[in-house]
Amino acid sequence: MPERPYVIDELISAKTIAARIEDLSREIAEEFAGTDKLIVVGLLRGSFVFIADLVRELDLPIEVDFLEASSYGDGMESSREVRILKDLRGAIEGRDVLVVEDIVDTGYTLKHVSGLLRARKPARMKTIALLNKQVRREVDFNADWVGFEIPDEFVVGYGIDFAQRNRDLPYIGTVRFT
Ligand code: IMP
């Protein structure tokens, strides 16, 4: 539980997010046109709202699976050590895979998870992140699709938490301590 009181300032509205997801879905459907069944892999827990909206816009046959990697804990800083807390249920060898992440910050999480999944020899693997904090990058990794470039601010909402709170906000907001 965060000890200091804070307020949340809206950064990206629910309407703007929905419009961007429509565009991204079209691009993804073009990229994977003709795929047998795309496996959409959500990285828990921050991507759960994004993946739910994305798959409902995607005009493709899909399966959904989830993977949980360790992240920030309850703090505001990346641990930079990525551990897999929950692995995929299914095999991905020879399959088309889309990995869905909420935010790429230092880049450690998505780089590590991509390497791990690539070693399982999918036919094709792409990554999408709703948000990208480019200035925070510490490793050489970029998602194939990014919803929004955002500044170096701590954000919450639309599935993203601060110490497990605020995931239920329909928009993305920045945390400001008062
Ligand atoms: P990275 O490994 O540093 O790229 O961190 C990625 C993960 O850190 C994301 O999936 C989020 O769980 C978490 N994260 C990064 N920035 C924020 C933020 O502003 N708010 C909440 N979680 C964040």
Q: What does it look like?
A:
Helix content is 22%, strand content 31%. The protein is built from three helices and nine strands. The strands form two sheets. The chain has a six-stranded mixed β-sheet, with helices on both faces. It has a three-stranded antiparallel β-sheet with strand order 1-9-8. β2, α2 (48-57) and β3 (62-69) form a beta-alpha-beta unit. α1 (14-31) packs across α2 (48-57). The protein has a single domain (14-152), classed as Rossmann fold, CATH 3.40.50. It is globular. It starts with 5 loop residues before the first strand and ends with a strand. The chain has helices at residues 14-31, 48-57, 108-118; strands at 6-12, 38-44, 62-69, 84-86, 96-104, 124-132, 145-149, 155-156, 172-177. By secondary structure, the chain is α/β, with parallel strands linked by helices. Inosinic acid is lined by residues 46, 71-72, 78, 101-109, 154-155, 160.
- Spans of at least 5 consecutive residues whose pLDDT stays below 50 are none
Strand content: 25-35%
Major beta sheet summary? 6 strands, mixed
Count of discrete domains: 1
Number of H/I helices:
3
Helix fraction by DSSP (H/I, runs of at least 4): 10-25%
Instruction: Using the coordinates above, name the CATH class.
Output: Alpha Beta
**Corresponding CATH architecture:** 3-Layer(aba) Sandwich
Counted beta strands: 9
Ligand types: inosinic acid
Query: Mean pLDDT, nearest integer?
Result: 95
Q: State the CATH topology.
A: Rossmann fold
SSE pattern, N- to C-terminal: EHEHEEEHEEEE
Task: Based on Cα principal axes, name the global outline.
Answer: globular
Cα separation of the termini = 16 Å
Structural class: alpha/beta
Report Rg.
16 Å
What is the topology, as strand order, of the major beta sheet?
4-3-2-5-6-7
